[in-house]
Amino acid sequence: MTPELAHARARATGPLSLGVGEPSPMGMTRLGHGDGTGVALPAWPDGATPSLLEEYQVAPVNVERSGETRRVLAAALKCCWTDLTADPWPGSPAPVEDVLSAYRALIGRGDDLMRNWAVGALRRLHDSAWLEMDAGTVRLGPRCACWPSDSHAQLRELVRRLPSGEERSPGLDVLPVAGEAWDDSPTGDDADGQDGGHDSGGGCSAAEGDGERLEADGDETHGPSGADGGEAHGRPGADGRSVAGGDGRGDGTGGDAFVEGAASVTVPDAVDEDLLGPFDERRRAEIVAAFMAVEHAAEPVHEARFPALRDPAPRRTLAEMLRRRGRTLVQDREAWTSGYADETAALTGTSLGEAERAVLVLVLIHSVAIPRAEGLLPADSWLSPFPAQVDELRRHTRLPVGELDAALRTLRHAGLLSQVKAGEEAGGYIPGPQFNRLTPQARRRLQEELILAAGPHTPLAAAVRANRR
Asked: Which range has the worst mean pLDDT, 224-233, 320-329, 332-341, 404-413?
């Protein structure tokens, strides 16, 4: 696997699993387990984190209920970081009920609404590799190893000040305890496919809990046609790093086996130093800031705010930094973002399931294809003010309501869909901010796929199929 593909897959599906003695790809941090296996996570240049966006007043991608997510992560940190003289990761496993007790003590409530919020927060933290949950226990996920060492003092002080939750009051459980089945159906903030609201917070993205989207690097769920799907750059942590989707193994099955006391973190030296070395300190900082902005901002950023995007010389360096990660610059007039390079996207594929892809196509037909055919949208636009109503989606799909709601939730968390409200109406769904990251070739390919989906027997669809032969 090339370094470009490794970085793209880590961003799309989460930390990469490494075999016994297998080194991490270039530019990635290796988290080693006691049995010789490990996982790899992308490293950022000059030790920067997505919290750098705050200095430029650029918003990261929001995480649903990021405030609750930060609090659940804090409760887990309180229970799992038992030796404050050591680094937080890997910590020690803690029973789920201990984490829930600490969470209840932190918020001072234990009603059903809090239970629903906590269920959603734990799900997001597990999916984004900030926590690993297995057999009734919780462990700090590989994302927690990415907290910069200079933030550990602040985290230690936070942990010391958090209530322990040792005194439990009967009847206040906010989550099921070990041995009880987890209800994976939409609840609370996820009920009926509705956003529970965004608390942008000042921390991070999912437990990008530390400064990026719980990204959630966002981490991202790779969407179809090269769209980034899920850079959840929420904000539950202390230092502001991004969160990539996926679990500690990168295969959705949970965490790898650990040998206590034998974990190791190997950080690569001088990431991109060969590219950044020739520049003076000011130019170097400008390039790194532009890199973090195009990779982790919620929307494309204007070049007037980032000199490295205006000047062709540093912009070429920025483009090479992205190329090494399977990414490319995407320009929209004077605004810039980044997306998967077309050749890398073809190899990475998509992590979305069949139901999620079907629902996404249905939303695109109702919110983009139909308004475009009526002349209400420009030909190349994938952002639409015309929401696909939930009732309309339910009428035009064969998916059970529960599967439809789960698919909408997944697409929403991935940034591929956004939910809008329309006055007293229920509102609906429109394409999410990840569609800003489509390259021109990906846009054309998605347009062709939409034609084939909306009118498979039309002359235009026949022309598309003929051109592909």
From this structure: 224-233
For residue 281, give both structure tokens: 């300190």
User: Taking the mean position of all CA atoms in its chain, how far away is CA 175?
Assistant: 24
Per the structure block, which two tokens stand in for 128? 């984004």
- Separation between Cα atoms, residue 25 and residue 15, nearest integer Å: 12
User: Can you tell me the distance from the alpha carbon of 417 to that of 123, in angstroms, rounded to the nearest whole number?
Assistant: 19
C-alpha span between 454 and 450 (Å, rounded): 6
pLDDT tens for residues 389-438? Answer: 888 898 888 889 899 999 998 898 888 999 887 654 557 999 999 999 99
How far apart (Å, rounded) are the C-alpha atoms in residues 395 and 401? 10
Buried b (16+ CB within 10 A) or exposed e, 331-363: eeeebbbbbbbeebbeebebbbeebbbbbbbbb
CA 244 – CA 222 distance, rounded (Å): 11
**Which residues 6+ apart lie within 8 Å of 427 measured at CB?**
387, 389, 390, 419, 420, 421
Dihedral sign for Cα 79, 85, 86, 87, please. Answer: positive
Whether this prediction's pTM lies above 0.90 is answered by: no
**DSSP state, residue 182:** P
Average pLDDT over residues 177-202: 37
Domain positions in the chain are 1-282, 354-468
Please report which confidence band the pLDDT of residue 324 belongs to, taking 50, 70 and 90 as the band edges.
Answer: very high
Residues 6 or more apart whose Cβ sits within 8 Å of residue 361? 449, 450, 453
Q: How far apart are CA 70 and CA 79, in angstroms?
A: 14
Q: How many C-beta atoms lie closer than 10 Å to residue 319's C-beta? A: 13
Q: Architecture of domain 354-468 in CATH? A: Orthogonal Bundle (1.10)
State residue 134's pLDDT score.
Answer: 87
